[in-house]
Design a protein that fits this description.
The protein is mainly alpha-helical and 158 residues long. The protein contains nine helices and no strands. It has helices spanning 8-21, 26-35, 40-52, 58-71, 77-86, 91-98, 103-120, 126-139, 144-154. The N and C termini lie far apart (64 Å).
Length: 158
C-alpha cells in the first residue's frame, strides 16, 4: 500500500484540524505524525508549532479527558489516572485534571451507579452478589475504600 508523503506545511495543517476537532495528548499527535511517515525533526517542529499556537495543550487535554470519562462513562479516579498515565500525561497534569471532578458529584455518581448495577444482579447468594458489585465498580476505577463502604451500605453483611 502506497501512502502519501506530506510536506511539513501540509502535516501542520492536517494536525491543526486533528487537534481542533478534539483535545489530543502529545502521544496521539506524535503517533499520528509517525503514521504519516514524518521524520523526527519534522515531528518535533510540528509539535512545537501546535503547542505554541495552543492547538496542543496537555493540561487542557487531561482536564477534558477526566471530565468526559467521569461524566459520560462514569469512571472512577483510579481508572482515569491509569488511562492518563498510559497516555504519558505528567503527574502534575493528572492532579490538575482530577480537580475537575466535584467531590459531591463523585460520591453521588458512585451511589447511583451502585444502585443501578445492583438492580441488574440476579445473584441471590449475598457474598457472590457483593463480589459482583465490587468487581464491577473496581473495574471502572472506583477506589476500593469507597467501594467497600458502599457495599456495607447497600448489601450489609448479615
Amino acid at each position: 500500500m502506497h501512502s502519501k508523503a506530506y510536506s511539513v506545511t501540509e502535516a501542520k495543517r492536517k494536525l491543526e484540524s486533528y487537534c481542533a476537532y478534539q483535545d489530543r495528548c502529545h502521544k496521539e499527535v506524535v503517533d499520528k505524525l509517525k503514521g504519516m511517515r514524518m521524520i523526527p525533526e519534522a515531528i518535533d517542529q510540528i509539535v512545537a508549532h501546535l503547542i505554541q499556537e495552543n492547538y496542543l495543550n496537555e493540561e487542557r487535554y487531561a482536564q477534558s479527558f477526566a471530565r468526559g470519562k467521569f461524566n459520560i462513562k462514569k469512571w472512577g479516579k483510579n481508572r482515569i489516572v491509569n488511562e492518563l498515565k498510559q497516555r504519558q500525561i505528567s503527574r502534575f497534569n493528572i492532579k490538575t485534571a482530577l480537580k475537575e471532578i466535584d467531590e459531591e458529584a463523585y460520591l453521588t455518581t458512585l451511589h447511583q451507579l451502585s444502585l443501578k448495577r445492583l438492580s441488574q444482579i440476579t445473584e441471590t447468594n449475598v457474598q457472590k452478589k457483593r463480589k459482583k458489585l465490587a468487581d464491577y465498580l473496581l473495574y471502572r476505577g472506583w477506589e476500593s475504600h469507597l467501594v467497600y463502604r458502599k457495599l456495607q451500605e447497600l448489601i450489609p453483611n448479615t
